[in-house]
């Protein structure tokens, strides 16, 4: 993407001399190429009819000269100078109609044009030059109009994406749709941030991506480069590049494809400016990949393996552990895109790196961060999880729940592992209550996990209402908070000293509240069975009711 004032790489797809010779207006003249036959790919910018010997001084470059030969000079040296002038002026070629002056073109002219690699064409039949100029100029104007239409179409579609806050993945998909070929958006380390494979298998597209991308070095901001003839453009803001958009056409990229590439880079820049206070490019890419894994949105396991490898997290032959991190939600904290999840993703990723684990890390919703840890083997799981969880707590700066699923070996098991991690996070004690662990697994939630699974069962709901209903009614009528006292008491196994400290109450106040609970519920808290029943009821309420978090 160029600075303001720089011309884009995109130019009108001008016809070549070879294509011009195939037009009916020229074909009727029975054209014969006498010189420069290997250079018929020269582009024709315009057609000029000229019958003067010093015509070179009137040219700007790219003109196809039409002549009857009447104005050509007489001497051999003059003919050579005439040809040299056309070469120096950058003409596209010379077409001479035989019959008015020449029956055959002079050898010095033919030889000079051949040395200058400039196409020389003889017409053996009379033609109307106006028909030739009309046909070629119409071609050029139509190409200009098509580029303008493509530019307008791309502008409308990318503007609409930017207005609605589309992600880089959506913008890249739009580039691929408009360009009709695969597209890659990579960061400065050649890691794939987003891709759209079009009709190409994803694993073929991303195979050995970093090495291939490093071989495609561009001389300018936008260029066609590398052995695979990729079209690439920098994605930058305020003169600083922070990514690269790569187009992989099946052949030489067309001018419209290059236009779409540059418009897409502009849209990604706008997205970056709008999103820079939320997630980094890496987090956005990780979040998209994690969501696709969890929701099963992928064509094959090979596709996902190629995507994760391109992000620097190879999952093949790895022990995979799904982890959910849920920071404690403050009462005044916003929800949606600015909630704790997106803000916590970077610290969680930093904790994974510090623990020595490669991981995909991204916000899954407004509150939770998902991490897929790729470990060399299951034996190192406890140590990595412990270092990771402690790093999370240290970096977040607020209490959090860290929940891990069982170790997985393939994508189907990864989805199950995430489901387990969500379940563990739902059932784990809220941060700051009891003896909170660095992280929780399925064996840790035990009864709480069972109660969470059965939370929708009417029988369990009836048990909770029967056991705690009178206490909830009392709190509502009198503005008391006896439930919180009971929660602290049962969470500490009936230890009154620990319960008083956890509830920030004096022992005398705790005794008075426990006595009130006994009166309201009609039970004795000295009974172990009663305490167990009350603890189960409180855990059930916490796992299903609004007070759980």
Automatic annotation (TrEMBL):
Signal peptide: none annotated. Residues 296-426 form the CdaR GGDEF-like domain. Residues 482-538 form the PucR C-terminal helix-turn-helix domain. Pfam families: GGDEF_2, HTH_30, PucR. Residues 20-140 form the Purine catabolism PurC-like domain. Belongs to the CdaR family. This is PucR family transcriptional regulator. It comes from Actinomadura litoris.
């Amino acid at each position: 993407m160029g600075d303001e004032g720089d011309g884009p790489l995109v130019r009108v797809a001008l016809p070549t001399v070879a294509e011009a010779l195939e037009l009916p207006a020229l074909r009727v003249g029975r054209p014969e190429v006498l010189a420069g036959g290997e250079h018929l790919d020269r582009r024709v910018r315009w057609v000029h009819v000229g019958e003067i010997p010093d015509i070179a001084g009137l040219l700007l470059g790219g003109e196809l000269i039409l002549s009857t030969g009447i104005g050509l000079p007489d001497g051999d040296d003059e003919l050579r100078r005439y040809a040299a002038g056309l070469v120096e002026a950058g003409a596209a070629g010379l077409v001479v109609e035989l019959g008015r002056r020449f029956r055959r073109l002079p050898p010095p002219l033919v030889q000079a044009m051949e040395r200058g690699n400039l196409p020389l064409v003889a017409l053996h039949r009379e033609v109307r030059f106006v028909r030739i100029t009309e046909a070629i100029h119409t071609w050029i104007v139509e190409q200009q109009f098509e580029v303008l239409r493509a530019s307008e179409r791309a502008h409308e579609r990318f503007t609409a994406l930017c207005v609605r806050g589309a992600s880089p993945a959506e913008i890249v998909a739009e580039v691929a749709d408009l360009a009709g070929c695969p597209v890659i958006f990579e960061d400065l380390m050649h890691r794939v941030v987003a891709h759209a494979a079009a009709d190409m298998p994803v694993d073929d597209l991303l195979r050995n991506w970093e090495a291939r991308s490093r071989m495609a070095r561009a001389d300018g901001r936008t260029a066609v480069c590398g052995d695979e003839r990729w079209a690439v453009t920098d994605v930058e803001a305020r003169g600083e590049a922070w990514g690269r958009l790569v187009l992989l056409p099946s052949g030489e990229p067309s001018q419209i494809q290059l236009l779409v590439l540059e418009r897409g880079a502009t849209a990604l820049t706008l997205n970056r400016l709008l999103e820079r206070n939320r997630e980094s490019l890496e987090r956005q890419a990780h979040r998209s990949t994690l969501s696709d894994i969890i929701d099963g949105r992928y064509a094959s396991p090979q596709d996902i393996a190629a995507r994760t490898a391109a992000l620097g997290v190879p999952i093949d032959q790895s022990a995979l552990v799904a982890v959910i991190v849920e920071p404690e939600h403050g009462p005044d904290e916003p929800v949606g895109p600015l909630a704790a999840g997106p803000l916590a993703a970077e610290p969680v990723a930093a904790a994974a790196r510090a623990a020595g684990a490669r991981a995909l890390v991204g916000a899954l919703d407004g509150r939770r961060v998902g991490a897929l840890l790729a470990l060399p083997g299951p034996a190192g799981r406890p140590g990595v999880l412990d270092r990771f969880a402690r790093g999370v707590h240290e970096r977040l700066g607020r209490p959090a729940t860290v929940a891990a699923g069982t170790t997985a070996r393939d994508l189907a098991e990864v989805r199950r592992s995430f489901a387990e991690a969500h379940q563990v996070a739902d059932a784990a004690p809220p941060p700051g209550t009891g003896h909170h662990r660095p992280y929780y697994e399925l064996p840790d939630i035990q009864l709480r996990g069972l109660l969470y699974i059965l939370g929708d069962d009417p029988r369990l709901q009836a048990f909770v209402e029967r056991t705690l209903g009178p206490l909830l009614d009392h709190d509502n009528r009198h503005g008391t908070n006896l439930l919180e006292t009971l929660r602290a008491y049962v969470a500490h196994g009936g230890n009154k000293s620990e319960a008083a400290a956890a509830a920030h109450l004096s022992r005398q106040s705790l005794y008075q509240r426990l006595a009130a609970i006994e009166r309201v519920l009609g039970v004795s808290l000295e009974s172990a069975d009663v305490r167990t029943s009350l603890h189960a009821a409180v855990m059930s309420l916490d796992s299903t009711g609004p007070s759980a978090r």
